[in-house]
Amino acid sequence: MTLRTPVKSVLLGAALLGLAACASTPPDQGPNKLAATETQQWMDRIKVDPAPDEILLKPHASGLSANQSAALEALVSRWLAAEARELVVTAPNTAGAMAIEIRDRLAGLGAGARVRVVGVDPASAEEGAIRVGFVRYEARPIKCGQRWENLAATRDNTVYDNFGCAMAANIAAQVANPEDLMRPRDMTPADTGRRDTVLGKYRRGEVTSSAKDEQASGAVSKAIQ
């Protein structure tokens, strides 16, 4: 008893010290809870490259020709399909009148106020032409299956090297607008008209909810089946 008691005391003391050490470990010494998962790490490997879509228009004293007008219409169709941010008209300073006509034409085709006109020195313009275009984005394809190991070896409880690659490759191939992988879209403006209506009713002490629809009453139909 006299020999075993000190041993037990030492073991008990070591255990208590270990527990105290675990309890006193700073939180930043543990696992990084903000680290990306294996799937997110594959998503971070998707590379998105800019791919400008531009056309060159020759200035005419009489304005846009029929072919130029058709080319602008096709450009706006591609711009809408790509969900790009803005259309840029880069024109020499000597072709300002035609640049304004191009801007109005683009606005009439659906671009609205998302057209920006940039003036440049005529000497730097390519053949004195007016450049009209936008920047769309393309996602590079991801190659999976470059390295495989024994998928049955799960003794370490870790994922295999290609885990999450197929999902990221499918997203890169199918995403409608690869720019969404780079940054979130701009927030649409608030509906100020509806906000003023609700606040006006609130200040007057009126009900701010929408009017009740009789078809949404939930009454059981009495129709004969």
Could you characterize the architecture of this molecule?
The chain is an alpha+beta fold and 225 residues long. It has a domain at 49-137: 60s Ribosomal Protein L30, Chain: A, CATH 3.30.1330.60. The chain is built from six helices and four strands, in the order H-H-E-H-E-H-E-E-H-H. The chain has helices spanning 4-23, 38-44, 66-82, 96-111, 165-174, 192-203; strands at residues 48-57, 87-92, 115-120, 130-139. The protein has a four-stranded mixed beta sheet, covered by helices on one side. Helix 3 packs across helix 4 (96-111). It is flat and about 70 Å long. It starts with a helix and ends in a 22-residue tail after the last helix. Mean pLDDT is 79; it is low at 1-5 and 15-33.
Short recap of the structure:
InterPro entries: Pilus_biogenesis_CpaD-related (IPR019027), Pilus_CpaD (IPR013361). This protein is of the alpha+beta class and 225 residues long.
Average pLDDT score: 79
CA radius of gyration is 33 Å
The number of distinct helices, counting runs of at least 4 residues, comes to 6
The CATH fourth-level homologous superfamily of the domain at 49-137: OmpA-like domain
Q: Provide the CATH topology of the domain at 49-137.
A: 60s Ribosomal Protein L30, Chain: A
- Ranges where pLDDT stays below 50 over 5 or more residues in a row are 1-5, 15-33
Q: How would you name the oligomeric state of the polypeptide chains in this document?
A: single chain
What is the CATH architecture annotation of the domain at 49-137? 2-Layer Sandwich
How would you describe the shape?
flat
- In terms of DSSP E residues, the strand content is 5-15%
- Number of DSSP E strands: 4
The CATH class of the domain at 49-137 is identified as Alpha Beta
Q: Into which percent range does the helicity of residues fall?
A: 25-40%
Structural category: alpha+beta
Distance between the termini: 90 Å
Largest sheet: 4 strands, mixed
Widest sheet, order of strands: 1-4-2-3
